[in-house]
Amino acid sequence: MDKKIAVIGAGATGLAAARTLAAGGFRVDVYEKDDYIGGLCVSLKTGGADVEKIYHHIFTSDSHIVGLAGELGLALSWKAPRDAFYAGGKIFPFTSPVDLLKFSHLPFIYRVTMGMLVLRAGLEKKIPEGVTAREWISAKAGRPVYEKVWKPLMESKFDADADDISAAWIWGKFKLRGSTRADKVGREMFGYMDGGFMLLLEALAKEIESYGGKVITSAEVKKLVKSIGGWEVCGNEYDCVLFTGPPASFANFADGFAGRDYEVKCLGVSYKANLCALLETRAPLSKYYWTTVADKTVPFVAVIEHTNMVDKKFYGGSNLVYLTRYLDASDPLYAAPDDEVRRLFVDGLKKIYPSFTEADCVSFTLTRSRYAQPVVRLGYRETIPEVRTPARGLYLSSMAQIYPEDRGMNYAVREGFRAAEIIKSDSIA
């Protein structure tokens, strides 16, 4: 086809869409405002190897990214690491249903009801919409289950919006995690790309170029310009434009061309920001890969010990740990100096692991993400902007359109594929 398409954003969604379109015969240019590709998958060198600045893993049920990796000749390694749960000043093993039965943070009867809730969620096909996560969990498993386990986590994830989050969001979490077990009592399987997930993004960029497309970095596109035949981007003419950033950014980018109603809808999608710290530590903190933190006095919601899943030999022997915190972008901590965040996070580690000291933190790299987690309130499905905008040849594909699943690389790739197929269909019609 002789149609030209501009894709704005070189993250997983933009590159997956662009590769699909380029392979289909479209002439595609990808524009990225940063001087690197990858979006939230951007990496840094540690011990001579790449590691993402923000933690990444996939599940066995992540068919889109598993299939794409296979097409590109990239290898995935799978492991069943151990998980834990920190609450009440104690670390509890939390890997299997058997661990749940031993979870003394809850009375025994509520351990059973919590397990049954997760099990039933994995079997149910009807999405629980029209009810909040608080109401749904309390009704299905008992109020203590929500108050002692899920409320601290929901508040760490959504802050003041925690009580308004739709049950559909937590149901999607339960369903995904349940689908990763080889059997009902086995461990979850986690996957990681040999060499890091940036290899996937780089391979997509190379394929786009092999089809005659371009991936242009350091090219910020602030406003959309209408031309006689379609759209103008950076002085070049295009038949179609696909924007892959947050809806609020799209509303500013579209500059009225998508129509007031559509752009108001985009501005109505709110996000939580994220602080993600990557630490190199002198020694492992624990034997666990993922430790969920249900304690409001600790300034992060999870401790992810990356080298308890991927052998530290790949990173020159370094122990790598992620700490993650969600918050409003208006929260003073989001804009606080890195040293202040480091001090706060290290103090949090000392609380969980009393033997940990400041000297045990060899390096600390902080990454701020303004648009990290869409706020999935009641009625969220009705607020999601369509991929097709009211303007002919103008499309939006973003994290906010992943539903009822939570955001993740697999669904970012899926949404890229979906947007590409919609554009192809419209081009044929």
Assess the beta-strand content as a share of residues.
15-25%
Question: How do the strands of the widest beta sheet line up side by side?
Answer: 8-7-16-17-18-15-19
Structural class by SSE content: alpha/beta
At the fourth level of CATH, the homologous superfamily of the domain at 4-39 and 196-269 and 379-428 is: FAD/NAD(P)-binding domain
- Return the CATH topology of the domain at 4-39 and 196-269 and 379-428: FAD/NAD(P)-binding domain
First and last CA, distance: 13 Å
CATH architecture of the domain at 4-39 and 196-269 and 379-428: 3-Layer(bba) Sandwich
Report the strand count.
Answer: 20
Structure description:
Strands 8-7-16-17-18-15-19 form a 7-stranded mixed sheet, sandwiched between helices. Strands 10-2-1-14-20 form a 5-stranded parallel sheet, covered by helices on one side. It has 429 residues and is of the alpha/beta class. Among the domains are: 4-39 and 196-269 and 379-428, FAD/NAD(P)-binding domain (3-Layer(bba) Sandwich); 96-186, protoporphyrinogen ix oxidase, domain 3 (Orthogonal Bundle), CATH 1.10.3110. Residues 181-185 have low confidence and may be disordered. The chain is built from 13 helices and 20 strands. The protein is globular. It is 34% helix and 23% strand. The two termini are 13 Å apart. The longest helix is centred in the C-terminal third of the chain and has 20 residues, at 409-428. The chain has helices spanning 12-23, 63-71, 97-101, 108-123, 133-141, 143-158, 167-178, 198-210, 247-254, 260-267, 338-352, 380-383, 409-428, and strands at 4-8, 27-31, 43-46, 49-52, 58-59, 76-79, 83-87, 90-93, 190-193, 214-216, 225-226, 231-233, 236-238, 240-243, 271-281, 290-293, 302-305, 319-327, 361-374, 394-396.
